[in-house]
Amino acid sequence: MFTKLEQHSWLKIEAGRGKTARECYRGLAEVCGTAALPYRTVARWVQAFRAGRQNATDQPRPGRPSATEAQVSSVAKLLETDRWWTIRELACKTGLPHTTILHILKQSLHMCKIASRWVPHSLTEIQKWQRYESAQMHLERYKKKGDAFLNRIIALDEAWA
């Protein structure tokens, strides 16, 4: 219903109006129901806003990141040369654990494996428009020629296209 950021923003406004943490929690619980932040979290945020905090977003947490920029770039360079790498091969080549390689591929590089090949998971704006235009063209052909047009279509795996 409401995201954490939206709830934090509301807490900032209510704390600025002088409301107590308990009043803020009751208001959130009334609107958000079970999706409301826990009372202890509300109390911490209200206290932080009263102490002068301006930002309603979560601060980066301490700790080691799962993958450094250098690691991400080394995996990306390997994939530029050959997209047929397996996770184990990438792990052996880079010396990173396979879980880190998987995290880099999925979270940092936004890739997925299709037909044994790593490909970008999201389409660029140009690719989206190209797909839209080809779909429109096929729809127009189908309207003109009917089932005869469908009999001429050959389906390919998208890794080959």
How would you describe the overall organization of this protein?
By secondary structure, the protein is mostly helical. It is 58% helix and 5% strand. The chain has helices at residues 4-16, 21-32, 39-50, 69-81, 87-94, 98-108, 125-145, 147-150; strands spanning 111-114, 117-120. Strand 1 and strand 2 form a beta hairpin. It is flat, with a radius of gyration of 25 Å. The mean pLDDT is 86.
How would you summarize the topology of this molecule?
Elements: H1 4-16, H2 21-32, H3 39-50, H4 69-81, H5 87-94, H6 98-108, E1 111-114, E2 117-120, H7 125-145, H8 147-150
Antiparallel strand pairs: 1-2
Helix pairs in contact: 1-3, 2-3, 4-6, 5-6
Our measurement of the CA-to-CA distance between the termini, rounded to an integer number of angstroms, reads 40 Å
Count of helix runs: 8
- Please trace the helix and strand order, writing H or E for each element: HHHHHHEEHH
Contiguous runs where pLDDT drops below 50 for at least 5 residues: none
Q: How would you sum up the global shape?
A: flat
Residues in helices, as a percent range: 55-70%
- The fraction of residues in strands falls at under 5%
Radius of gyration in whole Å, from Cα? 25 Å
User: Helices and strands: which structural class?
Assistant: mainly alpha
Lateral arrangement of strands in the main beta sheet? 1-2
Number of strands: 2
Largest sheet, in brief, is: 2 strands, antiparallel
- Name the average pLDDT: 86
